[in-house]
Structure formats: structure tokens, C-alpha cells
Automatic annotation (TrEMBL):
Species per Swiss-Prot/TrEMBL record: Notoacmeibacter marinus
Cofactor needs: [4Fe-4S] cluster
GO function terms (MF aspect): 4 iron, 4 sulfur cluster binding; metal ion binding; phosphogluconate dehydratase activity
EC number: 4.2.1.12
Cofactor note text: Binds 1 [4Fe-4S] cluster.
Keyword check for Transferase: no
Name of the gene encoding the protein in the UniProt record: edd
Name of the protein in question: Phosphogluconate dehydratase
Family: Belongs to the IlvD/Edd family.
């Protein structure tokens, strides 16, 4: 049974956060008082700021009466999820003119694809890219030319980075504008099957590439429910999207209408409008709890047990792993989306999507329905289905009372499981996170000898050599933030999945990450303290009996306590992680980064 309800968890976060939150709001109020006063800029400052604008826009921006909207975009045309943003600045500028304002691209921020870098050296830059994105957005907004901002981002580290920037500039109203998922391609479970066959050597590279290309086949977000789509869910749960915006496909009339509507709304919530809504005031402890509720109710990405802590910290809010775990104990699983089910996010959206989910959570008292949003007061306006009127404007109707597909979306009184599935593991190996919503009950407890690796390639080589045909717990260490940037180890999923399917009891223990695609193999990830900091994981040896218990929430090595305490910690060989693919540029980040349970941030959260 839950030990605390949502209100109690929220209140303890409020109390814990009081000093840092009050200091944050004081800084925000000072920035609001200072305002965006373009007429106070020197003539040279202002001339540089609007040099490329039209004569009418220059006239508008010369004074303070016409609002200017800053566009922060993560567009590039390598990421399928971000390629649709190429069109958005023109759409936004036109919508701004129609609304009586001006819009300028304030900043472009980097956006890397974890799908491209999985298992590659570039993955060691991935987590740090979040903080780089926050800083890049800050550089653009520091010109102080803007009355509000819209943020164009979708994928893994991009939205958390943009969120941190938005809350750092919390005196500005902010709206997040997504691009939407690509249409459904090869079913995700079939893709996973081909990956396992490839890992076993039963199909070749040509067959694997064909399957992958049918899965990732066009513009839009990948359709499995990983970190990218969890991002969109959280933005809507916090009221940072226009209602219903999360999962509308790109390059459609409805998607463009939602983007134009976001621009119009952004001007209404500036200081020049009638509903001034600075984002730092709008986002509070209740908003952050709503994001964690959504994460658990949908079986979302384990990455957000790191990101959400860093995101909250940008607003002076102190969130912990225990808060997220307790919310998981309180909130039932209402969605079955791959890897927690067979359906993808397009099926989820068609079944009722975010509108149905929010309606159910609000009616059950499992989320805060009284928060301020970019759309106004309360989350009731988000319990909707979205469509297009004949005149091209957005139409909203109440969410269905019953899911269009009960196998994908459940009601709060008849959930798929009584808890959300994200748990904190604790024991003599430290603290860790496990996602058990996709793990069958019979696989949630594994007690087996450890096999220790210090690189994921070592495990893959051992698998190919036939050395892992037994019960074991794979320990992949020196993968933490300080060691090598905490890469995702998602390429370990196929071989471990193969071994589990062959009847062996297997699990993973690592101070690295797995990703939003954490699946059927039990994995204790984000182990803290990490091995490079001398954490207990650095003392493990081959053959040590380890017990991972996802039911009781424990992670332990079953070795004599005195003997284990006396062991020296392995040092690890990190030389090869220091150079190549830009890793040398991130040495300062590796030295400054905090622990995973503190958000793995270089900003001192």
C-alpha cells in the first residue's frame, strides 16, 4: 500500500525546497521588474538586434509596445524528430504578424541523436549535451530582446535542456512546441525480434538494416515510448504545451494549426497581454509532481529519474529519487506502449492519448488539476481530444469516457498494474533505479553470480564467444557521469534478452544508463555512488553472489560484510574515454558533474 498520497509527497517537496525556491522567485521578480525594455538599449544595440527585420518590424521593435517572441530551435535535418522544425520559424513569424507582434530566431541549440550514437564514442557526450543545450539557449536569450519564448525541441536531452533554459529565464512566458511522432512503421516488437536474431547470428546485417529502416522511416519522433515521447508527455502534464499538442503527426494541417495557436497564446501571456504568465511562476512543485505522475502512469523513460531532478532544480525545487519512487507506489500504470506493451505512440494517441490519461488522473485525484498552464488555470482544459475545424483552427472536444482501445489505455479503477513501475533499489551496493513495468513478475528477482565488465563491448564479446550461457548478473561499471559521461547501454538489451529467452536468470547492474527503452530484462541502473567515486560497485568481483530484488526494492552483494569492506576498489582504465569524437572538450564537465541522484548536472543542482 502507498505510504503517502500525492498531496503529502508534494508538501514535503515544498518544505524541502522552501529556501532555494524563495531565492529563485526573488531573482525572478527582480527580472520581471526590470522587464524587457528595448527602448533602453543603445541605438547600436538595437540596430544590431533588428538589422535583418523588415522596415515595419524595425518600427515595431524600436519601442516597447509591440511584443517580440524569441524562437529557440533545435532544428537539424539529421534527426527525424527535429527535421520538421525547418518549417516552423516561417509559420511562427507569420502567426506573430497576424497576432500583432514580431518573432525572431533567438538561438539554435545542438541536438544529437542517441539512436545514431548508441554503442559509439559519441554517446559519451549525450548526457552532457543537455547542459550544453541549456547554455546555448541562454546565450540566445541573453540579448534581452524578447517578451516571451517558444521552444522547438523533442528528443532525449533536448527538451530537458530547453526546460532548464526556460526556467533560468523564468521571468519570460514560455511555450514548448513539439513536432510530433512519425507515422507507424514496422511494429516495435518485430524490430526487437530482428535485433535479437541478429545478436544470435541468425540474420545478417542486410536484414537488420531493412528492419531498422522500416521502423525509422520518415520525419517525426521514433514511435516507441522512450525518452523523446516521455518528454512530450511531461510537457503536457505540466501545461507547457497547448492542450492536445504532444502526439499529432508532423507536416499535417492540425500540427501547423497547433503551432500557430501556440504563437497567438504566447503573446496573450506576455506583460503586454492580459494574462501575464512568467514560466518560473507557472511551474511550481505541483507541476513537477504532475510530470512524475505522468512518468509513472505511462511507464515512461528511466532517463527522467535524472532529468526531472535537474529540471526541477532550475526552478529551485528539490526533487529526489525517493519522491519519484513514492509517486510510483501511489500511481497505477494506465498505458501499455512499447516497450511496456506492443502498441506505439500513434496507437496511444488514437486510443485517447494524453487527454484521456489526464482526465483519468484528475478524476482519481492522482495529479494536481489546479496548476497554472500556458492555456490558463487548471488541467481540465487538457482532458480533451484535438481535431481541426473547417476554417483550419484547432477544435477540442471532451476526452472519451472509455478508452478507444482498452488494451492500450486503462481507467484508473482498472489499471494494468497498481503501481507505476519505477523504483529505487537500495542496499550495500548503493542506490539504483529499476523500471519493472516491462519486466514479467517471474523475472523481477534475480540472485546469481556476478560477471564484471568495464566496457559494454566486453559483454558483447563474451556473449558472442558463448561464455554467458548460464545464470548471472552482468555488472558493467565505470559508466557513470564522472567516468565517461554516463552513456546509454541500450545495445546490451538484445544479447541479455536472448539469454533470458533461453531460460537463464539474467540481470544488469550498472552505474550507466539504459534509456527510455528499458525493457524486459531487469536492470539496476544509475548505481550511485558510481565506480569512479569508489562506490561499492567498484569492489565487486567475478563470482560474487548478487541479489537484485525488484519486488522488495533491494540491491545487495551477498558477501561477508567485513571482507567486502576491506576490499580495495578497482580503479578503472579511463584513458580511452578522454579523447576522440569531441570527448576531450568535455573534460571539465566530467570533473564538475554531480551524482545521478542529484540530476547528473554540471550546474550544481
Amino acid at each position: 500500500m502507498p505510504t503517502a498520497n500525492i498531496s503529502q509527497i508534494t508538501q514535503r517537496i515544498v518544505e524541502r525546497s522552501r529556501p532555494s525556491r524563495e531565492a529563485y522567485l526573488e531573482r525572478l521578480d527582480d527580472a520581471v521588474t526590470a522587464g524587457v525594455n528595448r527602448s533602453s538599449l543603445s541605438c547600436s544595440n538595437l540596430a544590431h538586434g533588428f538589422a535583418v527585420c523588415s522596415p515595419s518590424e524595425k518600427s515595431d521593435l524600436a519601442g516597447d509596445t509591440v511584443p517580440n517572441l524569441g524562437i529557440v530551435t533545435a532544428y537539424n535535418d539529421m534527426l527525424s524528430a527535429h527535421q520538421p522544425f525547418e518549417r516552423f520559424p516561417d509559420i511562427i513569424r507569420q502567426a506573430a504578424r497576424e497576432a500583432g507582434g514580431v518573432a525572431q530566431v533567438a538561438s539554435g541549440v545542438p541536438a544529437m541523436c542517441d539512436g545514431v550514437t548508441q554503442g559509439q564514442p559519441g554517446m559519451e557526450l549525450s548526457l552532457f549535451s543537455r547542459d550544453v543545450i541549456a547554455m546555448a539557449a541562454a546565450v540566445g536569450l541573453s540579448h534581452n530582446m524578447f517578451d516571451a519564448a517558444v521552444y522547438l525541441g523533442v528528443c532525449d536531452k533536448i527538451v530537458p535542456g530547453l526546460f532548464i533554459a526556460a526556467l533560468t529565464f523564468g521571468h519570460l512566458p514560455s511555450i514548448f512546441v513539439p513536432a510530433g511522432p512519425m507515422p507507424s512503421g514496422l511494429p516495435n516488437d518485430e524490430k526487437a525480434r530482428i535485433r535479437q536474431l541478429y545478436a544470435e547470428g541468425k540474420v545478417g546485417r542486410d536484414e537488420l538494416l531493412e528492419a531498422e529502416s522500416k521502423s525509422y522511416h520518415g520525419p517525426g519522433t521514433c514511435t516507441f515510448y522512450g525518452t523523446a515521447n516521455s518528454n512530450q508527455m511531461m510537457m503536457e502534464m505540466m501545461g507547457l504545451h497547448m492542450p492536445g499538442a504532444s502526439f499529432v503527426n508532423p507536416n499535417t494541417p492540425l500540427r501547423d494549426a497547433l503551432t500557430r495557436e501556440a504563437v497567438s497564446r504566447a503573446f496573450q501571456i506576455t506583460q503586454a497581454g492580459n494574462e501575464f504568465t512568467p514560466v518560473g511562476r507557472m511551474i511550481d512543485e505541483r507541476s513537477i509532481v504532475n510530470a512524475a505522475v505522468g512518468l509513472n502512469a505511462t511507464g515512461g523513460s528511466t532517463n527522467h529519474t535524472i532529468h526531472l531532478i535537474a529540471m526541477a532544480g532550475a526552478a529551485g525545487i528539490r526533487l529526489t529519487w525517493q519522491d519519484i519512487s513514492d509517486i510510483s507506489d501511489t500511481v497505477p500504470l494506465l498505458a501499455r506502449v512499447y516497450p511496456n506493451g506492443l502498441s506505439d505512440v500513434n496507437h496511444f494517441h488514437a486510443a485517447g492519448g494524453m487527454g484521456f490519461l489526464i482526465k483519468e488522473l484528475c478524476q482519481a485525484g492522482l495529479m494536481h488539476d489546479d496548476i497554472r498552464t500556458v492555456y490558463g488555470e487548471g488541467m481540465e482544459a487538457y482532458g480533451i481530444e484535438v481535431g481541426l475545424n473547417e476554417d483550419g483552427t484547432v477544435r477540442r472536444s471532451p476526452a472519451p469516457e472509455i478508452s478507444h482501445e482498452p488494451k492500450i489505455l486503462a481507467t484508473a479503477d482498472k489499471p494494468f498494474q497498481p503501481t507505476g513501475g519505477l523504483e529505487v533499489l537500495q542496499g550495500n551496493l548503493g542506490d539504483a533505479i529499476i523500471k519493472i513495468s516491462a519486466v514479467k513478475p517471474e523475472n523481477r528477482v534475480v540472485e546469481a553470480p556476478a560477471i564484471v565488465f568495464e566496457d559494454q563491448s566486453e559483454l558483447q564479446a563474451a556473449f558472442k564467444a558463448g561464455e554467458l550461457e548460464k545464470d548471472f548478473i552482468a555488472v558493467v561499471r565505470f559508466q557513470g557521469p564522472r567516468a565517461n559521461g554516463m552513456p546509454e547501454l541500450h545495445k546490451l538489451t538484445p544479447p541479455l534478452g536472448v539469454l533470458q529467452d533461453r531460460g537463464f536468470k539474467v540481470a544488469l547492474v550498472t552505474d550507466g544508463r539504459m534509456s527510455g527503452a528499458s525493457g524486459k530484462v531487469p536492470a539496476a541502473i544509475h548505481v550511485t555512488p558510481e565506480a569512479l567515486d569508489g562506490g561499492p560497485i567498484a569492489k565487486l568481483r567475478n563470482g560474487d553472489l548478487v541479489r537484485l530484488d525488484g519486488e522488495s526494492g533491494t540491491l545487495e552483494v551477498l558477501v561477508d560484510e567485513a571482507e567486502f569492506a576491506a576490499r580495495p576498489a578497482a580503479k578503472g582504465q579511463m584513458v580511452k574515454n578522454q579523447h576522440g569524437m569531441g570527448r576531450e572538450l568535455f573534460a571539465a564537465f566530467r570533473q564538475a558533474v554531480g551524482q545521478a541522484d542529484h540530476g547528473a548536472s554540471v550546474f550544481g543542482v
